[in-house]
Amino acid sequence: MRRLSALRELIDGWESLQRQVRDALEYLELAEMEEDEEALREIAEEAKKLAEAIDKRELQLALSGEHDQAGAILTIHAGEGGTEAQDWASMLLRMYLRWAERHGYKTTITDTTPGEEAGIKTATVEIDGPWAYGYLKGEKGNHRLVRISPFDAGARRHTSFAMVEVLPILDDDIEIEIHPNDIKMDVFLSGGAGGQNVQKNATAVRLTHLPTGIVVTCQNERSQTQNRETAMKVLKARLYQLEREKKQAEEAALRGEYVKPGFGSRIRNYVLHPYQMVKDERTGYETGNAQAVLDGELDPFIDAWLKMQVGGDGSKRANGKGK
Question: What domain count does the chain have?
Fold first, then answer.
């Protein structure tokens, strides 16, 4: 019934656009006959809006994956490089939170490990809203930053990496069998803000899936039960993703090519010195306004990647200063 409802909504949207285009063409024909300049200007504005609406709906054709309509579980891991890499990881977390805010998505940071001096070592955030996973799934991979390090007394240029993992928030009716004996649960004191009530009780939960070695922690909620439920949800998503990657590897091997499962190679460069540029390695899309991207303006990169998935040309350059 959910799939039927989604398909009906999709078809209704296209039919509505079709009616609007038909009406606009009839209005245009009438305005041209009467040589009505004001009406022609109105039609030009309407045509622009219709073109944008059609472009947006065409983009949704790339969102046809099994879980694309679901919310997303996004995890950021700082790469090697100590404080510099940990600060970069926190910058990425802020970027994705800003992007989610722009789209009206609800965000919940379920787990975070602070850096030794600044930034974060790792963080997991739930982004809850329609199509969040579909839009963010292409963000999975290594992100590279080049800048003058604020932590280097010599003001030297540093290169840092952080890895982004994106998983769907699975429906409760999707069966992922997890045997109770395969899970080791540890509880510990929650860290970070929250006051004495948080620190008095061991509410944080760490789950270890013994067969795979996957470890999930959650310390966002005050209740140990709530933290365990959230951690199980993340574990379920990771096990599902692991099975999908195994299946993809088997299919690739049968085709005569083997692609190792994992996070892949570097997907995007963020350069803040000696010039400003953000460039996607897969689509070639780039912009000179690096600060806008770090403030959450990710849609052009997301759109270019999605269009590439359906055979469109997502490779283009944005306006602004570039290399």
Answer: 3
